[in-house]
Design goal:
Largest sheet: none
Radius of gyration: 25 Å
Structural class: mainly alpha
Distance between the termini: 6 Å
Number of domains: 1
Oligomer: single chain
Number of strands: 0
Number of helices: 4
Shape: rod-shaped
């Protein structure tokens, strides 16, 4: 019985490792989502600066380039941490970078936004699953760990008491 209890405890510690892995993955992806949100806010600020300058009869396309870069940084964070084919993600990031680098006026900025929105729509479900699944998995592994630890401890103690 001591051996069986010890085996359950060992299995429980292995499960705990999986829980820690899933929790770390969730943290990484949550941080990417936060970065995406912050860079989107910065991009909106640059867009506001561009249109404010435009209202004052100043043409400042550099603000649009900065807005595109902020969009790119946020999208990059979400894409690289999402599950999926990394080669395909790399291809999409290259496409997005080219569109961001090409921004030089309002028309090219709109083209960039169209590319960014298209890629976001394609990857939205995968990115959301990447945020939800590690949380569900971590909770499952956490509960399983506690169950195995509890049963393993009880069985090991019973075995110890019986002198098994």
């Amino acid at each position: 019985m001591k051996f069986s209890g010890g085996a359950l405890l060992l299995l429980g510690f292995g499960i705990q490792t999986q829980q820690n892995t899933q929790t770390a993955l969730l943290l990484e992806r949550t941080q990417a989502a936060e970065l995406d949100s912050r860079t989107l806010q910065k991009a909106i600020g640059y867009e506001g600066l561009y249109f404010s300058a435009k209202a004052a009869n100043l043409d400042e396309p550099a603000y649009l380039k900065l807005a595109a870069r902020q969009h790119f940084v946020g999208s990059t964070a979400m894409m690289v941490t999402s599950p999926g084919d990394k080669k395909e993600i790399g291809r999409k990031l290259g496409q997005l970078r080219e569109a961001a680098d090409a921004v030089h006026d309002l028309g090219s900025f709109r083209q960039f936004v169209a590319v960014d929105n298209g890629l976001e729509l394609e990857g939205h479900q995968i990115e959301m699953a990447g945020l939800i699944e590690p949380d569900v998995n971590a909770k499952f592994f956490g509960r399983l760990y506690l169950i195995l630890y509890g049963f393993g401890s009880v069985i090991a103690l019973i075995g110890q008491a019986l002198g098994d």
